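From the methods appendix. Each design record in this collection lists the tokenized structure first, followed by the designed amino acid sequence. Records were kept in a plain field format so they could be parsed without special tools. The example shown here is representative of the layout used throughout.

RECORD:
FOLD TOKENS (240 positions):
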């Protein structure tokens, strides 16, 4: 007999295949119809998410197997506005080595081992799905109004939620302060401790302590290993 994880994986594959079929069938450059290009490249996608947030009135279903850490925190404003407006739903992500960063930046996230598709649906009427990369390798995101695909994604989200826990209850998550997030962001840009201390107006000893906290959060013993984790958490396209 197939396990629940196998059933969810099969369902996720079917939803992803259906989304990709609709995206590849869309006319290039089309601005109408049930599927159209939303944005190209991670920075542009993160910026355009502000528009999607403003168009949301009640609920967001978000599945993301690989949550990234953006040093510029472009997701912060729309996330805060969503919480302030009382929008329902959560982002559900997969277990990651940088979950502590995700928890600090996205405190309403849940974690499930069965997340195998990236997508967002707002108000059960409008979907946002990953499409094929551009010729130069940039990711693309596409808006979709297909009701069957949107309903299939929402059902998948609800099943994943049954196997998820709030991120702060996930094993290994270490609480991080706002300053420690800023230290992580500057480390992503290659800054040294002395430069970070000057930038944040704190002592070098404080920065050293914050870096140690990040090592604990990543479950690593050295700065080199922490750099590897940050490299996976923060794609180069998001670094200034």
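DESIGN:
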């Amino acid at each position: 007999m197939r396990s629940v994880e196998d059933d969810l994986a099969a369902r996720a594959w079917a939803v992803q295949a259906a989304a990709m079929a609709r995206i590849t069938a869309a006319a290039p450059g089309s601005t109408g119809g049930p599927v159209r290009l939303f944005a190209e490249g991670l920075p542009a996608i993160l910026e355009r998410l502000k528009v999607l947030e403003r168009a949301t009135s009640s609920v967001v279903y978000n599945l993301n197997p690989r949550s990234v850490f953006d040093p510029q925190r472009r997701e912060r404003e729309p996330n805060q506005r969503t919480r302030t407006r009382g929008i329902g739903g959560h982002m559900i992500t997969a277990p990651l080595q940088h979950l502590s960063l995700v928890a600090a930046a996205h405190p309403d996230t849940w974690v499930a081992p069965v997340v195998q598709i990236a997508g967002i649906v707002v108000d059960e009427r409008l979907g946002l799905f990953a499409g094929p990369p551009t010729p130069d390798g940039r990711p693309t995101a596409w808006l979709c109004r297909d009701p069957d695909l949107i309903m299939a994604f929402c059902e998948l989200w609800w099943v994943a939620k049954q196997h998820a826990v709030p991120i702060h209850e996930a094993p290994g998550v270490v609480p991080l302060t706002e300053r420690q997030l800023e230290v992580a962001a500057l480390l992503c840009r290659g800054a040294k401790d002395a430069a970070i201390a000057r930038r944040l107006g704190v002592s070098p000893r404080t920065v050293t302590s914050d870096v140690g906290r990040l090592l604990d959060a990543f479950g690593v013993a050295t700065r080199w290993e922490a750099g590897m984790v940050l490299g996976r958490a923060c794609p180069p396209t998001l670094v200034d």
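APPENDIX NOTE: The first helix runs from residue 4 to 25.
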